[in-house]
Specification:
TerB-like; DjlA_N; DnaJ_domain; chaperone; Helix Hairpins; 3 domains
């Protein structure tokens, strides 16, 4: 139930406070100030009610992020020539998680359908997205993560879908190592067998086999080669922890799901650094 104040509420409150603080003189001043409050109250509240809905709308950068995501999801789903019910379900799940209003949901569906068109160019949007989120790598990684989920919606990714994702990496300024890490995690979540990862690595990435498997994983987690120096390991660790610290990322407006992944990423970085620190006595 909405609370309603009488039209003379300002005068009554002003008179009471004025009398307590300044006697009869304060009483008179309180009535004058209260009358002014009552006179302007309705117009002020009306102005605030008009401004309130606009405050709940996503900002310009967030709108670019969402529109680009919807378009890329449709673009990726269409790579094998058709969009399956499972792929549509992934998009609907995302819309539900974002708590889109009816009008926003219609816009999201329109953007998804736009991405399915052969004439749609996604590259310019990704380049703009990279510029807008240049200082927020976690958001760009979350973007790629959403696309990987779509690629696995219908029994695993097609070769054409992986090729498109790999083409997106330089546009989003995401390293092949980070792509492989996200890809492995999605494969594990979807219950795929832990097959050899060579066919899923970014084209041109060199394979290294010298370190033992646990150390190799640690180097990859930090994005380093196996011949990295102790100083490089320490610097990289500090940089990655600064980029993936949950407290810092909360200020960037990440979703709860993205924050949870950031916590997992921070734990992976800490574990990898601890292993390399022990092995190399950093």
């Amino acid at each position: 139930m909405k609370l309603k104040f009488p039209a003379f509420a300002g005068k009554l409150l002003g008179a009471a406070l004025g009398f307590l603080l300044g006697g009869w003189v304060g009483f008179a001043l309180g009535i004058i100030l209260g009358h002014s409050f009552d006179y302007h109250r309705q117009s002020a509240f009306a102005l605030l009610s008009r401004l309130r809905p606009a405050a709940n709308l996503p900002g310009r950068s967030e709108r670019l992020y969402r529109e680009s995501l919807y378009i890329c999801l449709g673009h990726l789903a269409k790579q094998d020539g058709r969009v399956s019910p499972q792929e549509i379900a992934v998009a609907e799940k995302l819309f539900k998680r974002l708590r889109l209003k009816p009008a926003e949901r219609e816009e999201a569906i329109a953007r998804f359908n736009e991405g399915k068109l052969a004439s749609t160019q996604v590259e310019p949007r990704l380049e703009e997205l990279r510029k807008r989120y240049a200082s927020k790598p976690a958001r760009r990684l979350d973007f790629l993560d959403q696309l990987l989920v779509m690629a696995y919606a219908d029994g695993g990714p097609r070769a054409s879908q992986l090729e498109r994702l790999q083409a997106f990496l330089p546009l989003l300024d995401i390293s092949p190592v980070d792509f492989d890490r996200l890809h492995r995690r999605i494969r594990e979540q979807k219950g795929f067998a832990d097959k050899e990862q060579k066919q899923y690595t970014y084209k041109g990435q060199k394979q290294r086999s010298q370190p033992q498997p646990s150390l190799l994983t640690a180097y990859r987690t930090l994005g380093l080669n196996s011949d990295a120096s102790a100083e490089d390991i320490k610097k990289t660790y500090r940089k990655l922890m600064s980029q993936n610290h949950p407290d810092k990322l909360m200020a960037q407006g990440l979703t709860d799901r993205a924050l949870e992944k950031a916590k997992e990423r921070a734990q992976e970085i800490q574990q990898a650094y601890a292993l390399l620190k022990k092995a190399q006595k950093v």
